[in-house]
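Hi, can you check this record?
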Amino acid sequence: MKKKYKSLKVKLFQRIEAIVAISLSMAIIISFFTIQPILSGQTLDQCEQATRQMTELLENTFDPIVNYADTITYSRDLKYSIDKYLAYPSSQYNSQLQLNLSEFSNNLSYVRGLMLELPNQERVFSISNIYDEDLQIIKSNWYKETEGTYLLKKFSDFYTTVQTNATADTREAISCVYCLNFEMKARSYRLVVFFDVSNLIRSFDNIAAAYLDDYTLISSDGHPQPLLGNNILLSNDLDFRDPTSYEELTDGRYFHRQSNYAKWAVLTYISNKSINRAYRLLLIFIVLIYVFMSGLTLLLSRFSFAQYVVPITKLSQTMIRISKGDWKAQAKIQTGDEIEDLANVFNEMLNNLNYYFNISLEQEKQQQYMRYNLLISQLDPHFIYNVMSIINVLAKRAGNKDIVDINTALIHLLQDRLRISNTEIFDTVQQEIHALEQYIFLANYKFGKNAVKVNWHIDETVLNDKIPKIILSTLVENSFKHAFVETTRKNILDIRIQKENKAITIIVHDNGIGMDAATLATLNASTPVQTSPRGMHIGISSMKQILQYLYKDNISICFSSEPDKGTTVRILFL
């Protein structure tokens, strides 16, 4: 009888509905007790940060003015122009002094002009933008109060200037004056800097619009600046000289912060109404509900869905094991729902795949082994052919001892070659070297007294490592057959077998006749060398096919050669 069960979809939906209902209820209850203080604290932190930022802007504007004025008073060019003008009062030296002041006024972007008051009360202005409002400041009581005090540094209150540009357009700007009294050669001077603070005020307005209801600046004399903010602070009866008096006010929150250098202060204000603004409270309330509900839903779902997620995870892990080659893995799942059905179908499908895979693998092994034996069988007749050619040469020399020696070596070689079976596709480096020594012994009879000198460079750590059979012999045979065509010259063969980063490297180098570029390109081609009708290149072609079959992409074969300079073959087993 078929087992009855609820579908996975129904189970998940039922759990999700219950969790969402619980999460939403808890979020609404908790929000009533947590959002109000969070909202107030966040708003006040933003206001305090805005006040701090405005104070930094004030310092970044006023402090450079102070340093700028000090730099001017130490200028040698200015002192020289002043001395010349005082010694020889004339329009020429007056113009020179004005020109120096104008050059200084261009060093700071928001400085409009300079004025220097000499000991004889004469005032010299820079050739720049000096307006009527600036001259009114010079005539004000504030300016008179700066007289007579050595090294007095003071900023004026902000004031409005009506400025006219080159196109006769006018605009209103907010300006300020900095006055510095200094002495030079026991005589008193006064430097006045006229500078524009419109950009500073615009920055203040932008910050205040985002976080504050009102703000103002309080000068070092305790004067609020009426040109700033919304004048809410100025409409209240506040003691701007006593910052502690703001703490007793209950209509809102006040933030007072004083600059370090100029001793000016920033005073900001936000009302209780703004702190508790309803639309912001509602917005944050809704956002917090959804965030909290989502987080709680995920947390509870993690435990509730475990009994459904774990079987899926097991099935996934089984698939991963199979993808890595473990074809015997089975998904053992008993959940009484669609996941169990899926696991059973998957196991049955895997069993069928294993059956057909094993059949195909066995057929492929047989085909590949037949192909390998076929390639090996192409090498041996070619090898025996070369050896028999040497025997024919020796037979003509009528030397019985030579014939006995060469046939003995031939027997050893044939014994080694006849050891090929399913488990002897590879052989140790030491065994291959032993077989190669027999071949070199045979092949050197062709050269008589000018036998090929073989230099062995064998790393002892590779002697017991295995390499494909006949590969080394094929490389050496190729050198004897194609490189050493002259038996009267001194022929040298270098054979090197070593390890490089745990990979075996075989290098065979001869000093023979070399080869041209076309032949070299053919040997280095990725496709196997084509076998000629008479069997030319059959050794190299078969060797490359064997290595590509055995190692796929984990083999590197490189030929390098130049005519009359020899040939080098490098094989790297990766």
Observations:
- The CA atoms of residues 392 and 398 lie 10 Å apart.
